[in-house]
Amino acid sequence: MNWKPRNLRELARMVVGDAEHFPYRSSKYITEFFEDCDLDFVHAGETRQVWAAERIEEVLAMPRATPSVMPDAFIRIIRRLLDKGDAEGDDADRIKALAALNIMLAREGWAAFYDENGLGQLRHIATNTIAQTANPHRPFTPSEIERRDQLLSYLCKCSEDELIEDVLLPLFRQLGFHRITAAGHKDKALEYGKDVWMKYTLPTLHVLYFGIQAKKGKLDSSGVSTANVAEIHNQVTMMLGHEIFDPELSRRVLVDHAFIVAGGEITKQARNWIGNKLDASKRSQVMFMDREDILNLFVVNNLPLPKGALPAVTQAWDDLDDDLPF
Fold first, then answer.
1. In this structure, what DSSP letter does residue 167 have?
2. Of 131, 163, 187, which closes a domain?
3. Structural domain of 24
4. Same domain for 157 and 300?
5. What is the superkingdom listed in this entry's lineage (predicted)?
């Protein structure tokens, strides 16, 4: 999706420092700005604003999954632009710079903000999702490692319903899935092997349907754990063979893919056992997500921790706040 030339020019003025509240950058420092964003753009004396606008337009043209997802390079530009180390004069917290940037971003349906670590973030206004450089295999910062450990402790003690409601539903919403419907465990007769079903819209506007079968603990295929794997196999078979009703289309549809999600480890033996039990067509429809995947995706997408995963002091303040009459 192309941005309006007016907005490109305005953002370029902020990058080169011709806009109020943003530091002035000469040719050398414009090149260094883009180097800090891991981009190999080199300014060689061209008109600063025009050149910067052309480079930003190139970045926005990079592949993205949907209009509500930003290229990683653009997210890095916004974070560098909002770096608190560039604060000047009476704008020590860069509140004025942030406000000026948001006036422009709002015209394209985006908003910038600082997270709890003081890092600039982008939020898509229509879907309320946060744009992230979400590589779950990158090194984590100390604060991210702390949040990961807190979530790990929560996964060790939460129930299956809490795993679904407090962890999986927010995670899949952030990842771009929509119409997420949790079957719950109160009415097993209506579950048909699905804990959750949801939709994902491809860039071509075709829609895929996903089902999730979640288990709290470890999935293995040895000893007593074999019963759990056999149960999962039966539920996945039911999930792929039973239709769901999509109220947006007013018709019944089949699930295209099934996620098997575990709050613990899914061993290689369990994956192989399930794979051997499924025929070739169904095997290609099944995907696995275990505790490590959940932890990494949750942290890199900067999702708020479930209430039960917060540190004791924070939890006490939250409980007190819930009891206040105002």
1. I
2. 131
3. 5-131
4. yes
5. Bacteria
pTM: 0.61
For 320, the token pair is 């007190």
Does residue 55 sit in the same domain as residue 148? no
Return the pLDDT at 276. 86
How far is Cα of residue 30 from the mean position of the Cα atoms in its chain?
30
301 and 234 co-located in one domain: yes
DSSP 22: S
Tokens 């006036």 label which residue? 103
- 3-class secondary structure, 270: helix
Between CA 303 and CA 128 the distance in angstroms is 12
The last residue of one of the domains, among 96, 131, 166, is: 131
Kindly report the backbone phi and psi dihedral angles of residue 73, in degrees, each rounded to the nearest multiple of 5, phi listed first.
-65, -35
98-123 CB burial, b ≥16 within 10 A, e <16? bebbeebbeebebbbeeeeeeebbbe
Specify whether 160 is located in the same domain as 303. Answer: yes
CA pair distance 283, 293, nearest whole angstrom: 20
In contact, 155 and 294? CB cutoff 8 Å = yes
User: Is it the case that residue 312 has pLDDT exceeding 60?
Assistant: no
Six token digits for residue 101: 């940037």
Helix H or strand E segment including 114: strand 110-114
Instruction: Give the tens place of pLDDT for each residue, 24-73.
Output: 999 999 999 999 988 989 999 899 999 999 999 999 988 765 666 788 88
